[in-house]
Design a protein that fits this description.
The structure holds two protein chains of two kinds. Helix content of chain A is 77%, strand content 0%. Chain A is mostly helical. Chain A has one domain (3-247). Chain B has ten helices and 14 strands. Chain B has helices at residues 44-52, 73-78, 95-105, 112-121, 137-149, 167-182, 194-200, 218-225, 272-282, 296-306, and strands at residues 3-13, 19-29, 33-37, 59-64, 67-68, 80-83, 155-159, 186-190, 203-208, 211-217, 227-234, 250-253, 258-264, 286-293. Classes of the chains: A mainly alpha, B alpha/beta.
Chain lengths: 253, 307
Amino acid sequence: MNTHAIRVIYKFELARWFRTLVQSLMSPVISTSLYFVVFGAAIGSRMAQIDGVSYGAFIVPGLIMLSVLTESISNASFGIYMPKYAGTIYEVLSAPVSYLEIVIGYVGAAATKSLMLGLIILATARLFVPFEIEHPFWMIGFLVLTSLTFSLFGFIIGIWATGWEKLQVVPIMIITPLTFLGGSFYSISMLPPIWQKISLFNPVVYLINGFRWSFYGIADVSVAASLGATIIIMAICIAIIGWIFKTGYRLKA
Amino acid sequence: MQAIISISNLVKTYASGFQALKGVSLEIRRGEIFALLGPNGAGKTTLIGIVCGIVRLSSGLVRADGHDIHREYRAARSKIGLVPQELCTDLFETVWDTVNFSRGLFGKAPNPTYLERVLKDLSLWDKKDNTVMTLSGGMKRRVMIAKALSHEPQILFLDEPTAGVDVELRRDMWEMVRKLRDSGVTIILTTHYIEEAEEMADRIGVINKGELILVEDKATLMRKLGKKQLTLYLHGALAAIPAALADLKLELADNGNQLVYTFEAQTETTGIAGVLRRLNEAGVEYKDLHTSESSLEDIFVNLLKSK
């Protein structure tokens, strides 16, 4: 295995993130803080507890997941799209690097950034609302798994995108709505029965509920279903990336 | 001499149906400077792209230092360095970071001593902490070469290396390329500057419309296809070639003030002595003379015209 290549790709991607650390961190932290102010303090104080958890604490896992999903996709898609756009991808394609090593380098770096961001938002949330984490290892596990899975998804988008607009389309048009409708701010048991059933087709419901369970031991779906859904999404992403590299889709003429 | 790159029956058809390479076979000898010439769209960059792993081949076989570029891509690619036509490097990185990145990408452990030497050879050492975006175009071109050399390749592809580079820097680069060749690196360059190939290449290949139409030692090519001319500057202008000289390959130029005699470069006897004797006999007086030789550019243009 070309570990030197993995190291330099990973390091390069993290260095890029650190160069723009203020924008990279401040933007999601500020927007999440605003969510806590609006939904936690202002509206939350008028909301009843959900399954014994205060509304402010209830939305913490969902808000972390919202940031982790969007940042994973954005980091990974930008990470591979930028060399395509700038033409520097030639160097990666002409190097003695396997597809797996390329993916580990780019996706690993994107997932690391998301993971760090998720933990920073977790710490920020603690400043606004008191909460305890019932299953800390599962919490980290879900965070790592989600960061990896959606960084893989972002990597696919970065290869698929042929312009900056396309890079934004999927996160804005699909991921953000799915996250908002995936129970970030409510329990799906609060929805009418028909919408509860429809919500079960939203994969983000499983991610948020698994993550929320690790915090408070409560969830709308079983932990096994959450874990299974995450692994299925990851497997689909891996299969698509395998196909991309096999065919050279939008990488090699 | 042993081939370091062996290409046989290479075909590339793009998804659009355009056939960029039509069964190209070529062997590059170890340690030579090989110039690949051809007009725009001839297939030069596609050929390089396939050998380097950037473009997928449709059919054929390519070996680099004996390694199949597909089945043994790691071994093959680790031998190759590529300086692409475009200045493609991360503008926000420092020179030092970007060459270290390239070295690592090609599976080599960090070696600051070697990279220092590369940067010094390319007069980049004092710029090592500068970001690439602050460098001039010529310096950026040197950075591209430094990146390509960072993993100590045995084969170096230079795709239009001196495009947009000033004359002085071009001379420096030619010197650097010669040094690399002397150190054992095989160099394949494509160029639009024919004088560049003429100046540096050991062998020359001409590609046109996806077909390799000629591969020859430069000296042999110049001798075989080159022409020489003897120009005589006359004392008085001639209205026409005198009838007594009609059997000679003479032409009038400069309003009859010059007589031009064209002869094949490869022939043992040029016929110059005979021409001069016949001119004396015909009473044509001249005040000066000089000979000139067709350049590689002339040969190249004639070759493309004939195809």
